[in-house]
Amino acid sequence: MTEIIDGRALSHKIRQQLKQRTVLLRARGIIPALAVILVGSDNASQIYVRNKHRAAAEIGLATQDFKFPDTTTEEELLELITKLNVDPKVHGILVQLPLPPQINAAKITAAINPIKDVDGFHPLNVGQLFLNDPQSLPCTPHGIMRLLAEHQINVAGKHVVIVGRSNIVGRPMAALLLNADATVTITHSKTSNLRELTQQADILIVAIGRAEFIKKADVKPGVVVVDVGMNRNAAGKLVGDVDFTEVEPIATAITPVPGGVGPMTIAMLLEQTVRFAERKIGG
Ligand code: NDP
Q1: Which of 46, 61, 208, 274 has its CA 20 to 30 A from that of 2?
Q2: Whether residue 155 is found in the same domain as residue 237
């Protein structure tokens, strides 16, 4: 029987624990707070931000909303970030990506105080992660590590193949796995022998944004599959980067879409904000 790796269940469990941690913080006069900056009118971004607000409120985390029009300048954003960086009431700062073209996203990310960088995208945090001394972890890869741990899937010594090398998923995922003693192969759109590599994976992590791209013939029987992708198929249904119907029967364990990696990303964002607030009491 293939094990279905249930991200909803673990996310729920983590959020219940976080509720208790925010109660303790509030009892000591600390209201954990996340500042969320949204620029422009991108539909998906607005939905993500709304979901983050709802999830934060449910665990007792305060959110501060900063909405800017599409025409906002880099200077305006930097001015706000500079203020939030030193505001003792703000523990986490999140800038929803993507940003409009006139704004240099790398510059904005680098302007965030690394100790408030809940997304773990600041170059200092990226560097520390790669040096195996992480201070802030990118939410999606962190959530994947927690899912694997919860299901007692040990990565040490395993060959993990990652498909996708983005800054938010593939690259930090590789660093986390390497830190956990996995043998890691990173593949991408220019990889010439992709199938040959994916077939070698003990654990396959796919983050490319191509609906049901990975088929049965791409994996070996007994593989553990983590599907990060979120795509709409021709029928408008939300599907992953892995063809679940084909791959699930031959896998040992697999994350579904929806209900796998997605819920964990948000749980990790909340957890990191609470952890940052706990620094105030030496937690
Ligand atoms: P990006 O578009 O930033 O990166 C995609 C990566 O996939 C690139 O490295 C690209 O290669 C690679 N790629 C694209 N096509 C192929 C191919 N045919 N073969 C091999 N590699 C390929 O995407 P993200 O990392 O931001 O997101 C990936 C997916 O994960 C999306 O569906 C996104 O919606 C989802 N996602 C889900 C999250 C969640 O919480 N569940 C969080 C973040 C993302 P190259 O570098 O050569 O261009």
Answers
A1: 208
A2: yes
Q: Going edge to edge, which strands form the sheet with 92-95? A: 62-68, 33-39, 92-95
What is the domain extent for residue 53? 29-113
Same-domain status, 144 and 108: no
- Single pTM value for the model: 0.97
Q: Decide: 48 and 56 in contact? Cβ < 8 Å.
A: no
Whole-number Å distance between alpha carbons of 118 and 98: 16
248-258 pLDDT tens trace:
999 999 999 99
What CATH number corresponds to the domain at position 176?
3.40.50.720
Q: How many CB atoms are closer than 10 A to CB 193? A: 9
Q: Atom 16, ligand 1: which residue's CA is nearest? A: 189
Domain count within the chain: 2
Q: Which of 119, 202, 218, 227 is catalytic?
A: 119
Catalytic residue, chosen from 17, 65, 87, 96, is 96
pLDDT in the model for residue 144: 98
Q: Whose CA is nearest to atom 23 of ligand 1?
A: 208
**pLDDT band at residue 283 using 50, 70 and 90 as cut-offs:** low
165 CB under 6 A from ligand 1?
yes
Ligand 1 atom at minimum distance from 260 CA: 41
Active site residue 119: yes
The Cα 11–Cα 151 span in angstroms is 13
Over residues 84-106, the pLDDT tens digits come to 999 999 999 999 999 999 999 99
Per residue in 212-227, pLDDT (tens digit) is 999 999 999 999 999 9
